[in-house]
Structures are given as structure tokens and as C-alpha cells.
Write a structure and sequence with these properties.
The chain is mainly α. The protein is about 55% helix and about 5% strand. The strands form 2 sheets. Strands 1-2 form a two-stranded antiparallel sheet.
Length: about 210
């Protein structure tokens, strides 16, 4: 077989997806694993709840999946690039990934979302539960939104970063609008190149940039 120097790119969400599948298979113990796997991934592709062993309605907190950037990346891919998503559909996608219901409800309350949810705002608030600080929150959001599968640094359009930073800072309430404006102006003038993209290192490793 001829040798090739082309590297195989592994989708970043694959390990977490397989981890959740393995966990579900162990819990369910299906008699026909191959058929069950087909049904499982078929349901996932349709945004439905995969076939698992029935549980009581009052699920213990220890059975929830741990929220991770990889799971959020899967959730983002399920949203499919939409800016607006209905609360019922998003709740279903959230449930499919077995993410904590109390966290979903908390983000809904903090964001004061109703039926039609702005996905980027919802995602930013979910990431804030992992990030603690504004910088760490935006770092996680960038990693989730980035579509660079070639091993390059996570990066997103600066216009998206501008929107996210302004929103997260507003919700945080500790950063003035004038500071947000100054930081965004500096980043746009001194950091952003012709491609209009911002890398995580651009705002996490530059001592002149203070997002908090």
C-alpha cells in the first residue's frame, strides 16, 4: 500500500460522542448491539432521545453527563448554524446529550430567554459556568465555535467576538461599557489581520488586553 503524508484529522467532538455512546450501551445492555447502535446514532442525527434503558423521572444528579467543551461543540453542531432556536427544540437537544436540567433552567433564567432563543447568547452563558472569568468564558466559546480541524489555533470572526464580549460583560455587570469599547477598539486596530479573525491567544496572552 502506498505511503501518504496526509494526516488524518479526528473531529474534536468524536471522543466525547463515543464516550456517551459507550456509557449508554453499558447501561442499556442491548441484546443486539449493532442494531441498537444504528438506532442510537439514527436518533442522535434526528435530534431525538437515543434508545436507552428507561429511568425514573427523578434522575439522580450523578447520572447527568458532565458539561464539557466537547459536549458543547456537539450541541453547537446540532443547532446547525442557526442564530435563533426554539426553546422546545433546544431543550430536546440538551436532553439528548443528558446534560443537567437544572443548568438549562438556570441559563434560561439568567438570560431571560423566552420561546425564541438567541443561540450565541445562550451558549455564552453556558460557557460562563465553566469559565468563571470573562476571558476564560470567551476562550471556551471560541473553542466551541471554531471550525479549524487542521490542528490550528481556535479562532472566530472578530464580529462574533465583539458581540459575545459585549454581551458577557453586560451580564457580568462588573465591566463598564467604556472599557469594553476601548478593548474592542484596541483589538480591532492592533490585533485583527486582513482575515478578520481573532485567535484565543490574541486576548489571553497579550498583557495589553484586559477583558475583566
Amino acid at each position: 500500500m502506498p505511503q501518504t503524508d496526509k494526516q488524518i484529522c479526528i473531529p474534536p467532538e468524536l471522543p466525547e460522542l463515543l464516550k456517551q455512546f459507550t456509557k449508554a450501551a453499558i447501561q442499556t445492555q442491548p441484546p443486539d448491539l449493532i442494531q441498537w447502535a444504528a438506532d442510537y446514532f439514527g436518533a442522535m442525527s434526528r435530534g431525538e432521545i437515543p434508545p436507552e434503558r428507561e429511568r425514573s423521572e427523578h434522575v439522580a444528579s450523578s447520572t447527568w453527563a458532565e458539561l464539557t467543551p466537547d459536549l458543547l461543540k456537539i450541541l453547537h453542531s446540532r443547532v446547525g448554524g442557526r442564530l435563533i432556536i426554539h426553546v422546545n427544540e433546544l431543550a430536546q437537544l440538551w436532553k439528548v446529550l443528558n446534560l443537567p436540567t437544572h443548568l438549562f433552567n438556570s441559563v434560561m433564567n439568567v438570560g431571560r430567554f423566552t420561546e425564541d432563543i438567541e443561540w450565541l447568547k445562550f451558549l455564552a452563558l453556558v460557557c460562563s459556568t465553566l469559565g468563571v472569568t470573562i476571558s476564560k468564558t470567551l476562550k471556551i466559546v471560541c473553542e466551541v465555535l471554531s471550525s479549524d480541524y487542521d490542528g490550528g489555533p481556535p479562532r472566530i470572526p472578530f464580529s462574533t467576538f465583539r458581540f459575545l464580549y459585549a454581551y458577557v460583560a453586560q451580564v457580568d455587570g462588573e465591566v463598564s461599557a467604556s472599557q469594553v469599547s476601548r478593548m474592542l477598539s484596541y483589538i480591532e486596530q492592533e490585533i485583527i489581520g486582513p482575515d478578520g479573525l481573532i485567535k484565543v491567544s490574541d486576548f489571553t496572552q497579550n498583557p495589553k488586553i484586559r477583558l475583566e
